[in-house]
Amino acid sequence: MLAALYLGDLTAPVTERNAKTQPSSARRPLSGGARAASFGFELGERQALVRREPEALARLFDASFERIHRYLARMVRDEHVVDDLVQETFLRLQKGLATYDAERALQPWVFTVASNVLRDHFGARKLETLDVDELANGPAEPSARGEAPTARLDRDECAQAAARALASLPEAARAVVLLRHHEGLAFAEIASALGISEDTARQRHTRALARLKTLLADFAPQAGDSR
């Protein structure tokens, strides 16, 4: 259903500027890092997105859906609200492609759109923090064979404490931490996504990590601790 909505609005005219493709000689191959920052899309493929070619739109949906859903789910507790925000994000992506610069990396732009959807959501509800219990690492990994029950309990308790600590951060700080540590964005990309300066992104990150370290001090390994 979501994919159908995302791909359905293809009737808008394509401008002459967007319809023109660059000569193949102008298409520069991306380095591994740059390709990763664009969900694997080369320049020509990003230009196809600007033209809103159905195949390129479908590929973007498949390549980015899980990461967008994960980012939004770590910021919002209500599963139904998350579904609405994911849908709104993809609709805005589809509509915003006319203004996307194909020369730029795709991933930061996608998370900019998702962050704007979150900002509108939080602004409408005047929320500063959210109660998110299962935020840090998603579902727990299966227990190692032969793991002692006490070790499993310690690990689960630590994971729950980390989730609570992350959830206690203000929305703006939590977004920086998630984009940095879960999505792997550079500070410049985070700044672009959140509409802040790079220095502000770094400062929020530093303060957030200091707060998390304080909140999780009881779980920090001690000298000689095998944890």
Label the CATH architecture of the largest domain.
Orthogonal Bundle
Given the C-alpha coordinates, what overall shape results?
globular
**Quaternary organization:** single chain
Rg calc: 20 Å
Q: Provide the succession of SSEs.
A: HHHHHHHHHHH
For the record, the CATH class of the largest domain is: Mainly Alpha
- Report how far apart the termini are: 45 Å
CATH topology of the largest domain: Rna Polymerase Sigma Factor, Chain: A
Kindly describe this structure.
The chain has 227 residues and is mostly helical. It has two domains: 30-125, Rna Polymerase Sigma Factor, Chain: A (Orthogonal Bundle); 149-219, Arc Repressor Mutant, subunit A. It has eleven helices and no strands. It has helices spanning 2-8, 16-19, 32-36, 43-50, 54-73, 79-96, 106-125, 149-168, 171-182, 187-194, 198-215. Helix 4 crosses helix 5, helix 5 runs antiparallel to helix 6 and helix 9 (171-182) crosses helix 11 (198-215). The longest helix is centred in the first third of the chain and has 20 residues, at 54-73. The termini are far apart.
List keywords for this structure.
2 domains; single chain; Arc Repressor Mutant, subunit A
What would you say about this model in short?
With 227 residues, the protein is mostly helical. Helices cover 62% and strands 0% of the residues. Helix 9 crosses helix 11 (198-215).
Provide the fold topology.
Elements: H1 2-8, H2 16-19, H3 32-36, H4 43-50, H5 54-73, H6 79-96, H7 106-125, H8 149-168, H9 171-182, H10 187-194, H11 198-215
Helix pairs in contact: 1-6, 4-5, 5-6, 5-7, 6-7, 7-10, 9-11, 10-11
